[in-house]
Amino acid sequence: xxxxxxxxxxxxxxxxxxxxxxxxxxxxxxxxxxxxxxxxxxxxxxxxxxxxxxxxxxxxxxxxxxxxxxxxxxxxxxxxxxxxxxxxxxxxxxxxxxxxxxxxxxxxxxxxxxxxxxxxxxxxxxxxxxxxxxxxxxxxxxxxxxxxxxxxxxxxxxxxxx
Length: 162
Prior knowledge:
Number of helices: 7
Shape: globular
Strand order of the largest sheet: 2-1-3-4-5
Radius of gyration: 15 Å
Structural class: alpha/beta
Oligomer: single chain
Order of helices and strands: HEEHHEHEHHEH
Helix content: 40-55%
């Protein structure tokens, strides 16, 4: 259900020609096991002429600003980042420093690379570092649906980092 939110954002972003094929959402996991949506973010690199406006960084920035926290762990919260694709190297760093407790990914780096995106130096060790830092990593959730958005964007969109 939470991944559906992260997956629908880039689908609409591409369909409406408002940005790239990546989206993310930050949820707070509550004590009763339910989750509350805190923020969403879509890739806005091309329309805003800003290489830092990836779905993950936008969602993280909005969540931190809305909650008034420079780190989502600062007050003992339990926050999860759902992203339509495994993060690029920049977004992995942002994930580490954001204070989220869990990262859930849809499409794989290979799916983004297949349409021409260069995700940078992202290795299995990158994910091990996240996990060793206390961030649970879950991958390949609704991968096919997320990869389809990437594939569709690859036919019509701007691949801005090659």
